[in-house]
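Notes taken during the Thursday session

The instructor put the following on the board and asked us to keep it in front of us for the whole hour. The protein is Immunity protein 21 of polymorphic toxin system. We were told not to look anything up and to reason only from what is written here. First, the residues (170 in total):
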Amino acid sequence: MVRYAEPGTVEWVESGGGPLVAVPETVLPFWTGADGEETASDYDRACEVDGLVGLLPVGDSTALVMGDEPAATAFLPEHGTLVRWIAGDAEADLLASVPAALDTAQWQPEVYWRVSGTALLFDAAWPGSDSAATDHVSLALTPGRYAVRAARVQPGPETWMVLVQLRPAP
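Then, after some discussion, the predicted structure tokens were revealed:
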């Protein structure tokens, strides 16, 4: 079992109030954030995602949007999982409950996301070209197709989180 005893063991990313988006590094320049010149900016499109996760076209690839509500989010590569902290007092307690939560989660239907490698998770309002200079988390992913599933879980009386698991898919 992985333990997270030290605060700051995991990098968290937060938004200014809107969704977070994971954009493959190869298409970061194509994500315009809230600064889009079109009728609906990329940020507007991300805000329209209904549910815990969704996909949006970006350049010749796809971005993964963390829908529902703003929440501090961390990537736990050993579980292939993004953890969205909805409620809970202590980071260590929240992270320690992840393995059991993964085993008991009632997953929503999967979506399939193809990536060319590393993606950056950041506030959808920022343009991709500025994302590395903002609050972000790097998702070191092997190129390929991923089955993405999400679940809202309550592993304790005062602890709630959303799990977004990325699993290699054929």
